[in-house]
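Fill in residues.
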C-alpha cells in the first residue's frame, strides 16, 4: 500500500483472532501459570504428587523435591545431551535466515511448503515489504531499540552463564568439583536466576522489534515469562534451603518484586 509504514515481513502476516499457533502458546502459558500458582500455595493445603513435582523440576531443583519414583529416574537425561537442541535450532534458523536474506536482497520466492505451513499455523498472507537497497532506509526506532535490547540481554545472559560455570572451576579453568555454590556478580546481585530473566528480555526485545503489535509473539513472551518464572522460583527455593547465608535481598526472578 503506497505510503504505508514499513513492517517486518513476519509482523506483516495477517493473523486471525485465534489460530492454531496462538492457541498452542496460550495453552502453554496458562499451564505454566497454573503450575506456578500451585507452587505458591502452602504445601500442606494441597495433596502431594511426586510425579507432578518430578515433571516440573530439573537439575538441582529435583534435590529439593519429594522422593522421586524409580520410573522417573530411569528417564533422566544428562545436560550434555541437550546439544541436539542447539544443532536443530542452528540448522532450522539458519535456513530461515538464508531464505529471508534471499528474499530481501535477491527477490527469491519462499518455498511453497513454507507458505503452506504458515497458512496452517494461521497466517492469512505472507509478504516481504522491503527488498534490496531500501532495507536500511525503512528502519524504525523500534527496530533499533529491539536490537539494542537483544544485544544487552544476550551479553548479560552470557556473563551469568560464565559466572555459573566458573563456580566449579579453579583459576586455570579446570572443573574441580560438582558442588553447588552461591553465585555473585552481575545480575546475580538482584535475582537468583538472572539467566532466566535475560532469556525473557531476549524474547521481549523481539516483540519490540516487531513493533509491539504482534499478538502471536506476545503470547510466546507470556509463555516464556511463566515458564522461566517457575524455574526461577524453584531454583530460589533450592538456594534458600541449601545455604543459610544466602542473600536475603535477592529475589527469584524479577528484581525487587518476585
Amino acid at each position: 500500500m503506497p505510503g504505508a509504514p514499513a513492517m517486518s515481513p513476519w509482523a506483516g502476516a495477517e493473523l486471525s483472532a485465534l489460530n492454531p499457533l496462538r492457541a498452542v502458546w496460550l495453552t502453554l502459558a496458562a499451564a505454566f501459570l497454573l503450575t506456578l500458582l500451585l507452587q505458591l500455595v502452602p504445601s500442606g493445603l494441597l495433596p502431594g504428587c511426586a510425579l507432578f513435582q518430578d515433571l516440573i523440576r530439573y537439575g538441582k531443583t529435583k534435590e529439593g523435591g519429594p522422593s522421586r519414583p524409580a520410573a522417573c529416574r530411569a528417564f533422566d537425561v544428562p545436560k550434555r545431551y541437550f546439544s541436539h537442541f542447539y544443532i536443530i535450532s542452528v540448522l532450522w534458523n539458519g535456513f530461515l535466515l538464508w531464505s529471508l536474506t534471499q528474499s530481501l536482497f535477491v527477490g527469491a520466492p519462499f518455498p511453497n511448503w513454507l507458505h503452506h505451513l504458515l497458512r496452517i499455523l494461521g497466517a492469512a498472507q505472507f509478504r516481504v515489504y522491503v527488498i534490496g537497497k531500501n532495507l536500511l532506509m525503512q528502519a524504525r526506532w523500534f527496530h533499533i531499540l529491539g536490537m539494542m535490547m537483544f544485544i544487552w540481554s544476550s551479553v548479560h545472559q552470557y556473563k551469568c552463564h560464565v559466572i555459573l560455570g566458573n563456580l566449579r572451576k579453579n583459576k586455570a579453568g579446570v572443573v574441580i568439583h560438582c558442588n553447588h555454590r552461591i553465585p555473585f556478580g552481575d545480575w546475580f546481585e538482584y535475582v537468583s536466576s538472572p539467566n532466566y530473566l535475560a532469556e525473557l528480555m531476549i524474547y521481549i526485545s523481539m516483540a519490540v522489534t516487531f513493533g509491539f503489535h504482534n499478538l502471536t509473539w506476545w503470547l510466546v513472551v507470556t509463555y516464556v515469562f511463566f515458564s522461566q518464572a517457575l524455574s526461577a522460583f524453584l531454583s530460589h527455593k533450592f538456594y534458600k534451603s541449601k545455604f543459610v547465608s544466602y542473600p536475603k535481598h535477592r529475589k527469584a526472578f524479577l528484581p525487587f518484586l518476585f
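The longest helix spans residues 215-242.
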